Amino acid sequence: MNIFLVGGVAVTTFLRVKRGRLFSLGKYDYKLFIGMLILSLISTISFNKNYGSNKYWCAGEYNDEMLAIYSLCIITLVITVSLFCYISIICEMRSIKIDESFGNEEISNQRKETNNRIYSKISSYILIFIIQYVPVTIYNIGHIIHINHYWVYVVCDIGINFGGIGNFVQVCCNFYFIYIYYLILKLNQYQYLVYN
Q1: DSSP label at 103?
Q2: What are the domain boundaries of the chain?
Q3: What is the tens place of the pLDDT at every residue in 169-188?
Q4: CA gap 79, 130 in Å, rounded
Q5: Is 30:5 a contact under the CB 8 Å cutoff?
Q6: H, E, C per residue of 55-67
Q7: Residues 140, 72 contacting (CB under 8 angstroms)
Q8: Phi, psi of 8 (to 5 degrees)
Q9: What one-character DSSP code corresponds to residue 23?
């Protein structure tokens, strides 16, 4: 489900920024991600017989390579689509920056600050995805070519767990600190009104 969510966020962001399509369903925004849930369920159901005990954890059966090949295809597809979407967004932002370079300096500084935040968010999304799914890719390749070493399992386990921790840190940095900054600005405005 997580990998489909990563791809869905990239495509949704691409459609919003590059194509100008805004999806606002109010309290029914969850419907945007029903497709990812359906894809996840179809994948789980279709490979239900392929799950079983493995040497170190419960995963795909070691002799069955279809699940590993499918996982590799999905990871490759999602990273390709995500990179295309995010690179297109960055190119769009750079073209806007060039067009606005002849405008007001204050607007230009605000645009630079906004672009820097967007670049860092996009970079962090791509970095977390790579940190999380490159070890899974190594595990799947090892599974296909029948490398059954302990380090392959450890690398995969660390990558998956670090991806979840990285996503948590990313959400905290991107949203929580923005909220704190907003509260500080409101407090400063209130103090200004009280003392003046």
Answers
A1: S
A2: 2-33+71-195
A3: 877 776 666 666 666 666 66
A4: 8
A5: no
A6: CCCEEECCCCCHH
A7: yes
A8: -65, -40
A9: -
Number of residues that make up the chain: 196
Give dist(CA 23, CA 33) in Å, integer: 11
Asked if 145 contacts 101 with a C-beta cutoff of 8 angstroms, the reply is no
- This prediction has a pTM of 0.68
Output the 3-class SS for 130-149: HHHHHHHHHHHHHHHCCCCC
d(CA 181, CA 187): 10
Cα 53 to chain center, whole Å? Answer: 29
Tell me which residue of 81, 79, 46 sits closest to 64, measured CA to CA: 46
- The alpha carbon of residue 122 and the mean position of all alpha carbons in its chain are separated, in whole angstroms, by 8
| Structure confidence by residue, pLDDT tens digits, 134-171 | 888 888 888 888 887 888 888 888 888 887 788 778 77
Query: Could you tell me the pLDDT band of residue 24, with boundaries at 50, 70 and 90?
Result: low
Angstrom distance (rounded) from CA 18 to CA 133: 26
- Burial class of residue 186 in the structure, from the number of CB atoms within 10 Å of its CB (0-12 exposed, 13-18 middle, 19+ buried): exposed
Sign of the CA dihedral running 34, 37, 43, 44? negative
